[in-house]
Amino acid sequence: MSEMGAMLDQLYDVVIERRDRPRDGSYTNYLLERGVDKICKKIGEESTEVVIAAKNGSNSELVYEIADLFYHLCVLMVDQGVTFDEIEKELRSRRS
Predict the structure, then answer these.
(1) Tens-digit pLDDT profile for residues 1-59
(2) Contact 21, 87 (CB under 8 A)
(3) 77: which residues sit within 8 A by CB, 6+ positions away?
(4) Which of 16, 21, 42, 80 has the largest count of CB atoms under 10 Å?
(5) Alpha-carbon span 12 to 77, nearest angstrom
(6) Could you give the CA distance from residue 54 to residue 39 in angstroms, rounded to a whole number?
(7) 3-93 is classed in which CATH architecture?
């Protein structure tokens, strides 16, 4: 597994931990408590910020916004019961 894969697995595990053992003041818990509508709204916002950063030509801004998008996608995945194994399987099925 790449270091990126390991990092995403760790992020996913933290989101699961927050879901199972909520912490006061946790942004992750806030999103999970608000539910899919709030999580999806944040994904929409973050996606737009990725596009803007790409158009601005700032690599550091783009990296920052992509990281935010990955985080919010992990929250959505946990909320909806989707695993990275399922995503990997789908991506592999597209390679022929």
Answers:
(1) 579 999 999 999 999 999 999 999 999 999 999 999 999 999 999 999 999 999 999 99
(2) no
(3) 12, 15, 83, 84, 87
(4) 42
(5) 8
(6) 23
(7) Orthogonal Bundle (1.10)
